[in-house]
Fold this sequence. Notes:
By secondary structure, the protein is an alpha/beta fold. 38% of the residues lie in helices and 19% in strands. Mean pLDDT is 90; it is low at 245-266.
Amino acid sequence: MSNPTIRFTVFTKPWREPLAELARHVRKLDFDGIELPVRPGFQVEPSAVVRDLPAAALLLADEGVRIASVAGAADEATIEACALARIPLIRTLVKIPPGGQYLASTEEALRQIERLTPRLQQAGVCLGIQNHCYREISSVMGLRELVRRFDPNQVAAVLDVGHCGLAGELPDLALDAVWSHLRLVNFKNACWQLIASSDGAPAQYQCVFTPGREGMAHWPTFARELRQRGYRGDICLTAEYSDSRQPGQPRRESDLVHYAPGLEYDRDPQRFEQLLRQDLAFARSLFAIA
């Protein structure tokens, strides 16, 4: 039996078709809603977010699709657009630029968020900061340190279990760290793959995105911990799968199996949708009520 307190959404970065086609695609895949990217080249672009996001939300709602969150910038225009569209959450990252320092970058991000909190409160919109990898906040303690001083209704944590796995974060401890501010959980999976080397060179590893059953994040344990804590909210599947036909090669954006017509991605729509359907079924089974 499905759990009525858990809804499953999908990050629609893989698809750039018109919104009506996107809505039909999402319904066919049986998700409960979406996270819409507000980025250049997508259905809603940052330069026109105040105009286009409310219109997109209405169009999708007419097609039976809910925008549960957007992936976009932490700025006043996006906050205003989300308020007008009645979208409760903006998911974003805190980046450390090349050559930048961690503490200086996170302190600047903190100051920026502090400037936005009055507008977030007024608009009834929450800013969700996600753990990631590479030059972003990549640990749950780094995430906790940033969000803990804010009201979780305005600034919250988005926990990505795939990146927890890459960082070696244990599910119970990761959730302990951010539970007070947890607003959204991303379910994806990944592992570190050894890049073939020769001549005794030091080993190097690349990030490979896998189906939910195969990576370093143990989905059943994360789901059990969330159920035991009484989590109510969205589980977002991020729909990223690395191309298994590229073993031992450095990961590139073009190695990701996204069904994205018109892009340079290595596309295999049937394989991509098969993996996504399998992962959704797996995730639903982990939260089902016996």
